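Dear support,

I submitted the protein below through the web form. The confirmation email said the job was done, but the results page showed an empty box. After a refresh the structure appeared. I'm attaching both so you can tell me whether what I see now is the final result or a partial one.
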Amino acid sequence: MLSVAPAVASGDPAGSPGQARSSAFIDDVCTLVAEQVTSTAGPLALRLDVGLADTAPLYASHDLDNYLFPLVPKLTSRTGRHFVSVWATKRHAPTSSVAICPAIPIDDPLGMYVFDATTTASASTNAYKEQIRDQITTANPLPDGGVALQIGFVVGPHRAWPNLWKPTIDALGAILGHDDGAREWNARDGRITDLGLHCATDPTVGNLIRIAIRASPVGPAPMRLADTC
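What the results page shows now:
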């Protein structure tokens, strides 16, 4: 269990309250899991379950990828261990927790939407998002409510794959929908209540990025830890 409330990434200046909350959250996680990270053999998975106050909106803001980044890169930097699978959920709950587990390959989870995309553009450009958007045009936004989303990346060995999370999710407006008047890359990613992000390295892909996108409405039961770790 976390003793510090999870905090999303902050773009505020150093020393600001937002940066302080983010740093305290990252420090708490790193302290709690340091031993497990070093003692767990093989490829690693991380699981973060965010508990929100009953008054917090569950399907707006509190974007799960903003909790995982920069947490996962910081954890890798401090421990020297890389993660190939990271998970996050959010629910109305009094506590939050984190777990480290060995990553175990499973069959394709499939989903209501199953898309496979390939990108050639830099992830820091709109062209990257446009390439993903143009390969999911048959989708219509999922019904209102929570969304379970898994994204698998196949990348070259020198790719910093956490840098792909946000631009990829931003490009999924056809699946997540947009608020009225929102810009194209402002998808309703606050709807994601169950998020799985995975990476496989393939030295033959060069600068290509292969992306598997699996999305469904959240059912009555949340993902269980035993299902993922």
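Response: this is the final, complete result; the empty box was a page-load delay. The mean pLDDT is 94.
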